[in-house]
Amino acid sequence: MRVVISAGGTGGHIYPALAIINKIKEKEPNSEFLYIGTHNRMERDIVPKEGIPFKSIEVYGFDRRHLFKNFKVLKCLLKAKKQCAKWIKEFNPDVVIGVGGYVTVPVLKAASKLKYKTFLHEQNSVPGKANLFLAPYVDLIGVSFKSSINSFPSDKTVFTGNPCSEDALKKPAMEKTELGLDPNKKLILVVMGSLGASSVNDVLKETLPLTSQKPYQVLYVTGKNDYEEINKLKFPINVKVVPYIDNMTRIMKRVDLMVTRAGASTLSEIIALQIPAILIPSPYVPNNHQFKNAMDLVKEDAAILIEEKNLNKDILLNTIDDVITSSSKQHNMKHNLAKLGVLDSASVIYEQLQKLIEGKI
To answer: pLDDT category, 68, cuts 50, 70, 90?
Structure first.
């Protein structure tokens, strides 16, 4: 299979794209890929390290607050579309895939105009503006949440789940001792994304010192932005502070409870690995989509929600203690998580791509 794939801006788009690539490689080892991303975001560093051919374009999202800046946005978009058309014709793929982020707009628009097969994947329960814009132009759309099916044309939308779920199940578990943790103590993983969340970290700085006499340990992933400052603070011996963990799903397999944001990829991993979770959605994302992602779990009694505006050390500590000390609550959440997942999502997507390429869709 020859594939052009595009996704960018955040790990929530990039890692599902990589999961799709890995599944295609597994099924068809001789497949060839071209990844098109932005020139100044995460994918520029992540994708080449995976040995995937990478090309970048200069493209930006529209700025509603400074409308005059959108002249540059449009100019870059037109230039990028022309460049993408050239690369796509040269590569001559079987299919062109978009996995989210504004970088996908010129890629899929160019592919559609050139009459190549196109597939779009939406990770969030509330679709992003780029995907909604592209929906009329693509051949097939995959969604991660059943609640978002109605946001797209019904005749070309399929419920695939998030491919990160299958990737998470395949990763070997990491032993707690690899991170200097006690193998016999319950483990709480606290993580707010690769860059962290300063507002939540401020609450955690007050909360974690109160856990010194608790019968559990905490792995606190601060995010790279806040690590230097937070690492200077004194925490109890049961709190381990790190900036980030590569392949975090490996340690997630040893976790008894997570305290985390509600990004789509993180939730797909929580569902797949059936991890009880306290979700603190970021209120700073477009369309409040993390809150709506979280509610897909909360309404099924598969997670607990604390909105950031209500967060303080007492609420957080009491909620943690309430879950970690109740085996029945943990069992109930795991049971309900098990009913939500598409555990072979990457395989489902691969099969849909095959059908699309063969003209069966």
So the answer is: low
